[in-house]
Amino acid sequence: MPPHDERYRYSQEWFDIVNSAWSNSKPFNHNGKYWQLKDVLTEPLPNRKPTIVNAGGSGEGKAFAIRNADLLFTVASDLKKSEPEVADLKAKAKVEGRNGGLLTPIMIICRPTEEEAKDFFKYYGENHLDSAAAEFIVEGLIADANTFPRDVLEGLRKKFGSIYGSHTIIGTPRQVAGELYNVEKAGFDGGAIAFVDYIKEFPYFRDEVLPLLEEAGLRRPVQRS
C-alpha cells in the first residue's frame, strides 16, 4: 500500500477523472501520474452532480474532503476541543468555495435512567469487549500503534472496541437530547447515529428522544401517518 499522503494524491487524480466523466458528454483522454486513460465516457450522465460524502481524520484527509466533498465526517471525541476545529474546517471550506455540512458519528446508549444506561455501557463496552477485534481496529487505523505506552494502547482498544471512536452519549432521553444540542452548538450540522442493537434500541429513541429534539428546534417535526 502507498504511504498515507501518497494515497490522497492518487485519490485526488482519480476523483478529478470521475468529475470530468460526470460533466463531459464526449469522450476524453487523461494522462496523469497514476492514471493513463483514453476515450473515457460515462453514459448516461447524472442529472445533477452526485452528493459526495467523505470522512477525514488526518490533516491530509480533512484537506482532501474540504476540496472535494459536500459533506465531511470527522470524529468529535471532545466537543469543547471540536468547536474551534469545526470553525476552522468550515472557514477552509469557504475558501474553497464550498458550503457543505460537517457531520460526526455518534453512539447513543439511551435508557429510562442514567444508571441503566451506564450499566449497559459497562456490560457491553467493558465486561464483554471483543479485545481481539478492538486490537485489530486500532492497528488498522493508527500506524505504529504497538509503540504506544501500554496504558495509552489499552485506552485506545477500549475506546475503539466499544464505540469505534465515536462521540458517545449515555443517559436518559432528556440527557441524550441535551447532549445532541451540544453537538449542534459545537458547530456540527448533523451526525450519523448508531446503537449497539439498532432494531431494539431505535424505537425507544424514536418515541422518547425525537419529540424532545423537535421541541428544542433541532429536528423538523414529521407528520406521522
Walkthrough of the structure:
By secondary structure, the protein is an alpha/beta fold. The protein has one domain (51-215): TIM Barrel (Alpha-Beta Barrel). The chain is 52% helix and 16% strand. The protein is built from nine helices and seven strands, in the order αβββαβαβαααβαβαα. The chain has helices at residues 4-23, 59-68, 79-95, 114-127, 131-141, 150-163, 173-185, 198-208, 210-215, and strands at residues 28-31, 36-40, 53-55, 71-73, 101-110, 167-171, 190-194. Strands 3, 4, 5, 6 and 7 form a five-stranded parallel beta sheet that branches. Strands 1-2 form a two-stranded antiparallel sheet. Helix 2 links the parallel strand 3 and strand 4. Helix 1 packs parallel to helix 2, helix 4 (114-127) crosses helix 6 and helix 5 crosses helix 6 (150-163). It is globular and about 60 Å long. It starts with a helix and ends in a 10-residue tail after the last helix.
Output the keywords.
TIM Barrel, globular, alpha/beta, 5-stranded parallel sheet, 9 helices, 225 residues, two-stranded antiparallel ribbon
Summarize the structure.
With 225 residues, the chain is α/β, with parallel strands linked by helices. The chain is built from 9 helices and 7 strands, in the order αβββαβαβαααβαβαα.
SSE blueprint:
Blueprint: H1 4-23, E1 28-31, E2 36-40, E3 53-55, H2 59-68, E4 71-73, H3 79-95, E5 101-110, H4 114-127, H5 131-141, H6 150-163, E6 167-171, H7 173-185, E7 190-194, H8 198-208, H9 210-215
Parallel strand pairs: 3-4, 4-5, 5-6, 5-7
Antiparallel strand pairs: 1-2
